[in-house]
Structures are given as C-alpha cells and as structure tokens.
Amino acid sequence: MESLNQFVKRLTVNHLPAAVHNHSYFINNIPADITIENNRQWIASVISGLLSTVAGHAKNTCIRLSAKKCGNTIVFLIQESGNTNSYAMASDLRQAYLLAEKIGGCLSVSVPVMSNTTISFSFPNLPAVAA
C-alpha cells in the first residue's frame, strides 16, 4: 500500500512548475508510516487543490508538507512563510473546502503571524468495510 508520503510526492510533481515559477519549492516531511485506507480519489482531489492554490500564491518560500495520525484521523498540513496574500489564498480554497466536507473532513487556514500561513486538512482514515 502506498504511503501518504509517496501519494503526496506524486501529487506535488504536477504543481512543481507553478511553485518554481514563483521561486518556491516543496519539502515533504510526511512520515513514511502513514497510509490512506479509503477515499483515495477524493483525498487526492482535495490535496491537489490545496497544492495548486499554495503553489500559485506562495512566492519566494519553502512550502512544507507534513502530517500526523490521531486515532482514525489524519491531519495533513501545509505551511509557508513567503510573500503571499493569505486572505486571497484562503478565498481560492473554497472548492477544496467543499470537497473536504463531502468526505467528512475539515479544512482550516491559520495566519498566526503575518506572512506565515498554515493550511490544515483533517480527514477520517477508516478502512473500507466489506459488503
């Protein structure tokens, strides 16, 4: 089974040109032991939307990707501290927010310090039930 680290690594390849165009880059710090048990296509859509938005808005920065598992929930984090309009970026995340809700997930954007943005996507990670 593919780890979340590998899963996200595949997705970042599609958004690397936009990041490079904005003089930014991705660092994947997701632990190799976290796997996705279910809803892979929906999760890919949400994460891809997040990566697209951040890569398009973040300028001159490192975009850090991390995750942690809390029981049956995975929390995926994107952190950037570049020159970006965090509020415009948050507005562009509307579609990803709606998709996250459809799978029982939650998306939040935090700007604790100006020019530091953290996007958190938490989602249930329950194994598929055999019918």
Descriptive overview:
The chain has a single domain, classed as Heat Shock Protein 90 (2-Layer Sandwich). It is globular, with a radius of gyration of 14 Å. β1, α2 and β2 form a beta-alpha-beta unit. It has 131 residues and is α+β, with helices and mostly antiparallel strands. It is built from 4 helices and 5 strands.
Briefly, what is this?
With 131 residues, the chain is of the alpha+beta class.
List SSEs in N-to-C order: HEHEEHHEE
The first-to-last residue Cα distance is: 21 Å
Mean pLDDT: 89
Q: Helix count, per DSSP? A: 4
Write the layout of secondary structure elements.
Elements: H1 4-21, E1 25-28, H2 40-57, E2 62-70, E3 73-80, H3 86-92, H4 94-102, E4 106-113, E5 116-124
Parallel strand pairs: 1-2
Antiparallel strand pairs: 2-3, 3-5, 4-5
Helix pairs in contact: 1-2, 2-4
Essential attributes:
single chain; globular; 131 residues; alpha+beta; 4 helices; 5 strands; five-stranded mixed β-sheet; 40% helix; Heat Shock Protein 90
